[in-house]
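Quick review question:
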């Protein structure tokens, strides 16, 4: 895996640099601005997806600052990461939480053909027309945002987003995972720990990658 700094000062790490197909993975962020990090949800998924799809590169973005209140900055980081993979002729965006909004904005890059959004935040002011004709898969946990002590995005929000995306001409598939909360994994004492229903998240993401036409290994 190679780690580089992109034009904005954000960081990106990528498996198999130079691959023609890149899955660009972008993280979420809360209300309070915090230094960027490597998302445990994205990292847990990439650890399992990269061996399954050996013909694709998987890139993870670490924002300069992560916060939905600084969405334009995070979008700029995502766009800079896309610019840092000039050899890619096809890009699949994989966004978690606020990363859903970042992925949608980054779909203005003509190389983006598919978007996989996990528990996405899709603000009303976000333009969607750039996704006309693209495949979009939205996956959301059924109890996301329901437990008061756990922040998240309620499924009703992404359902509204799915309707708006369809109206914009995107080919949308919506999946709900019973019993799943906001995220796939957490990091504790340097270790990645899967959250409940992590296997279901992985299954649905793999099916979305298959739908996107990625070639799977044995």
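Suggested answer, residue by residue:
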């Amino acid at each position: 895996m190679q780690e580089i700094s992109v034009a904005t000062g954000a960081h990106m790490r990528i498996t198999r640099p130079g691959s023609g197909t890149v899955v660009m993975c972008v993280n979420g962020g809360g209300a309070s601005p915090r230094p960027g990090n490597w998302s445990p949800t994205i990292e847990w998924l990439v650890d399992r997806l990269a061996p399954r799809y050996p013909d694709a590169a998987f890139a993870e973005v670490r924002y300069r600052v992560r916060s939905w209140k600084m969405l334009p900055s995070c979008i700029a980081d995502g766009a800079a990461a896309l610019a840092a993979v000039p050899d890619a002729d096809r890009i699949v965006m994989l966004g978690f939480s606020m990363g859903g909004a970042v992925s949608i904005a980054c779909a203005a890059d003509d190389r983006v053909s598919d978007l996989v959004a996990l528990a996405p935040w899709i603000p009303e002011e976000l333009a969607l027309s750039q996704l006309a004709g693209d495949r979009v898969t939205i996956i959301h946990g059924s109890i996301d945002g329901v437990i008061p002590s756990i922040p998240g995005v309620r499924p009703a929000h992404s359902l509204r987003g799915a309707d708006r995306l369809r109206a914009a001409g995107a080919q949308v598939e919506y999946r709900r995972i019973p019993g799943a909360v906001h995220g796939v994994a957490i990091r504790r004492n340097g270790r990645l720990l899967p959250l409940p229903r992590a296997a279901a998240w992985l299954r649905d993401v793999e099916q979305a990658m298959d739908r996107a036409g990625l070639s799977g290994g044995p």
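Why it works: The two ends are 22 Å apart (CA to CA). The longest strand covers residues 56-62.
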